């Protein structure tokens, strides 16, 4: 039996010796966290204008280099010389609960693990998912017309939790394990925000750790049964996937990937849909343009082949993600000394990548602050000016594996919603947006919904 040796870069401490790079780490420990929470774009833009595309930056206890601009993102995401570690970039944050997740694996190990997910995101699986998704969403919004005004963010959050329990895990909403699973998952998300990182009574961290243990036990206890069955939920696919040598993936790997999948899929899509409705709720003509697209499909539920008949919906969600990326900060750590933007960055330096700034650069986007779906369509095709000017789903080896699933879910929701309802933002909407920890409207997006008379 061979024992895996931990590569030395995973044992090294973060390098904070960056005196040769312009900028500042900000206040002790918290760094520039407060500025960023108050104004994400302004803080990054200020940093760019003062110091250029590579600068010293401090955030939530971490000190490293902030990278700005699509050329640098391309270098880091494509990582041709294996210079960058996603695992060590995220170890101090996501690593507290999701050690072993796909995003926290590097290079060969990452490639090997990503294989586990391949069948679960192929066409055949996606066709099965879409068959479940449409009716579930339709049922969830059937009474929205009677409510008049509703808070969109918590409403869509619950719908997507239920859909995830069914499609990813194979649990019906009436199954009491679905509620427990959702609670465990939400507790972990809360735990990630905890300031105390010890399991002390009453802390978010402790609640999160209890949730983490619940998920471990829950998924672990079902692996053998799912492997023997013919389930078409994501979890079942993972249990049956084999390595190139014909072995199943280990229980530990399957559990780690399932737990992270729930996290990676949920808040991101909730945030994207909330921002999309935020813009459509202010522009009735655009809302009608998208409604015309879904009406033209003329079916109660979307089928897989219908997804490509919704090009406007696809660019509308991308435009929402351009202005308000769900993942507001990505992290990597250098493995060895390397040069970025003309600066030598020592080994073990944390790198911060803030996609929103790329998405609003005037060099790549005309009137970047405007919500304008036509910028993505011919003849303008602004997104083609640089292959990394839009990185809402990341790029390179770690590019979001659930991107097509997310787009399918958005299209399904919008297909059900716009066919039945028209809506606008409620008068009491504050028009304030938050970006940290999750980008969303501050007061949960109150909307007024009216049934369209048939
Ligand atoms: C609008 C919705 C979504 C957005 C904006 C989004 C965004 C992202 C981004 C930016 C990354 C790359 C992070 C990095 O490189 O540091 C990522 C990775 C990932 N996403 Fe998504 N995501 C979404 C939905 C989903 C869904 C629905 C799933 C699963 C069904 C999913 C699963 C994952 C996984 C597993 C990874 C890690 C991939 C890897 O390391 O190889 N995401 N996502």
UniProtKB/TrEMBL annotation:
PROSITE patterns: CYTOCHROME_P450. It comes from the Bacteria. Heme binds at residue 400. SUPFAM superfamilies: Cytochrome P450 (SSF48264). Its EC number is 1.14.-.-. Keywords: Heme, Iron, Metal-binding, Monooxygenase, Oxidoreductase. One of its GO terms (biological process) is sterol metabolic process. Its cofactor is heme. Coiled coil: none annotated. One of its GO terms (molecular function) is oxidoreductase activity, acting on paired donors, with incorporation or reduction of molecular oxygen. Belongs to the cytochrome P450 family. This is Cytochrome P450 136. It comes from Zhongshania aliphaticivorans.
